[in-house]
Specification:
Helix content is about 75%, strand content about 0%. The N terminus is likely disordered. It contains 12 helices and no strands. It folds into 2 domains: about 45 residues, no CATH class; about 230 residues, MetI-like (MetI-like fold), CATH 1.10.3720.10. It is mainly alpha-helical.
Length: about 290
């Protein structure tokens, strides 16, 4: 393979650089191919026998607007207003997942003999909640905990059980991300910190953890993108969040444009976070390449 061929497969900054070396020619080719692909997709959809029915069912402007603003007096809710509940559930769950997942990861990495039973419980916790679908966890907590009739615990709002299900399920996944990040820190860093006389907790806080977090930010953000979408599953408990509000509108008017509205709102929330994640991944790649070159 010649040098130009090798360079054609190397990313060099931003833009479409996978199969070309960029520049004006690459921009023209990528733009033309994008227009052609989108044109083919639009043509196929427009010429499909049921295109008109699908357009009315999912892309009806009057129905999209009515579902967006809502009218509780007529029995349907605003999808735009309900998305605010998804955002609040996401923020609360994220704030609880991070410390819980880190604690689970530290417990699983600990080597103290006295912590063996706790390590065993932590391992079982991770295996269980990574293996059981989130939807089943929401059902178990949302319907099971109130049925126990425990004081205070069984009388909480359904949103509390939904957020709890998100926290316990995602903490299992995020703890493995934290554990991988902590394991990625070279043992020499730990030895250097201890040789300076730093206690174990201080070395963890100021030396190991900052390096581990820097390595796991991209996969961590990817998990939280999924978390933002999975807040819609809490609607199975009867909570009026965006997906449930869209479902109520669709059931009442037999038109599913409300689901399109909900999808657009979720995209407006997740796409900026996805692009931010891509930016962090690219910056981390550039940093690693600079370090390797040095």
């Amino acid at each position: 393979m010649t040098l130009p061929d090798q360079a054609s497969f190397v990313y060099a900054g931003r833009g479409p650089k996978l199969f070309t070396s960029g520049g004006t020619r690459g921009t023209v080719i990528s733009t033309a191919s994008t227009v052609i692909v989108l044109g083919v997709i639009v043509t196929i959809l427009a010429l499909a026998p049921g295109a008109k029915d699908v357009e009315h069912a999912f892309f009806s402007p009057p129905n999209m607007w009515r579902s967006l603003v809502g009218n509780p007096s007529k029995g349907y809710y605003s999808v735009a207003g309900a998305i605010w509940l998804n955002i609040r559930m996401f923020l609360v769950a994220e704030a609880l997942i991070l410390p819980l997942a880190l604690l689970i990861a530290l417990i699983r990495l600990s080597a103290h003999p006295a912590l063996f039973p706790i390590r065993l419980l932590a391992t079982g916790y991770v295996d269980f909640f990574r293996g059981v679908p989130l939807l089943l966890v929401i059902y178990m907590l949302g319907y099971g905990v109130p049925a126990l009739q425990l004081p205070v615990i069984s009388s909480q709002h359904l949103v509390v059980y939904g957020v709890t299900a998100l926290v316990v399920s995602y903490s299992a996944y995020v703890s493995e991300v934290f554990r991988a990040g902590l394991n990625s820190v070279h043992s020499s860093q730990v030895a250097a910190a201890r040789s300076l006389g730093l206690p174990q907790f201080t070395a963890l806080r100021y030396v190991i953890l900052p390096q581990a977090v820097r390595n796991i930010i991209p996969p961590l953000l990817n998990d939280f993108i999924s978390l933002q979408k999975d807040t819609a599953l809490v609607g199975v408990l009867g909570v009026i969040e965006a997906a449930q509000a869209a479902n109520i509108y669709g059931s009442q008017f037999f038109n599913y444009s409300s689901f399109t509205v909900a999808a657009i709102l979720f995209l407006l929330l997740t796409i900026p976070l996805a692009r931010f994640t891509d930016r962090l991944i690219e910056r981390d790649r550039q940093r690693r390449l600079a370090g390797a070159a040095a």
